[in-house]
Write a structure and sequence with these properties.
single chain, 191 residues, alpha+beta, five-stranded antiparallel beta sheet, elongated
């Protein structure tokens, strides 16, 4: 190879490759390979997304998915319990928007939801707690909520599932009232 100084634009060996009649075909082949790899990755991603949606929509409990602090998907059971006919009424909302202003402990729903999400971001993979939700008609219901973090399409997501604990709350309240009556001496034995 002849020596070349730094002013030469293309060294001799590269100019031979670029001058070859096969060079355009080589570039076309490489672009085709790149497109095939990208298509395969996209198809794999679509299959995973489809599979996750199938699991979510056939899950036997109310379930929603949160990404970047907002609901992005939910199943029909969650829609039914919340009293909405269409998922578009929920998608894009925050957990605080489907909750009363305050939770029973007196904390603002938005702040409490943010702090629970922060715990997930800080590495705690799951959370379980009681929460008061508000239905589309404005009525409240009590739920035991479970949050689980997962990654989908390279983004952090949260799976939200819950159980309605309204009957348990009523039974708890009756038990507390009975215990207060018993402690005050006003409890009567009906036997």
């Amino acid at each position: 190879f002849p020596s070349h100084d730094t002013n030469d634009v293309i060294p001799y060996s590269e100019s031979v490759i670029m001058a070859s009649p096969l060079f355009p075909w080589l570039i076309a082949f490489l672009l085709l390979c790149l497109c095939a790899v990208l298509w395969w990755q996209w198809q794999t991603s679509q299959k995973k997304h489809h599979y996750l949606r199938l699991v979510l929509h056939h899950f036997p409990e109310p379930a929603l998915v949160i990404r970047q602090g907002r609901f992005v998907d939910c199943n029909p059971i969650a829609l039914n319990i919340l009293g909405y006919g269409d998922s578009h009424a929920i998608i894009g909302k925050t957990p605080g928007e489907l909750s009363p202003r305050y939770q029973p402990d007196g904390e603002l729903s938005e702040q409490k939801a943010s702090s629970l999400m922060q715990l997930l971001s800080d590495g705690e993979p799951q959370q379980r707690f009681e929460w008061t939700h508000i239905r589309a008609d404005g009525s409240l219901f009590f739920a035991e909520v479970s949050l689980s973090s997962f990654s989908a399409e390279g983004e952090d997501c949260v799976l939200v599932t819950w159980h309605d604990i309204g009957l348990r709350k009523i039974a708890q309240q009756h038990l507390e009232e009975e215990l207060q009556l018993f402690a005050s001496g006003q409890y009567r034995d009906w036997e």
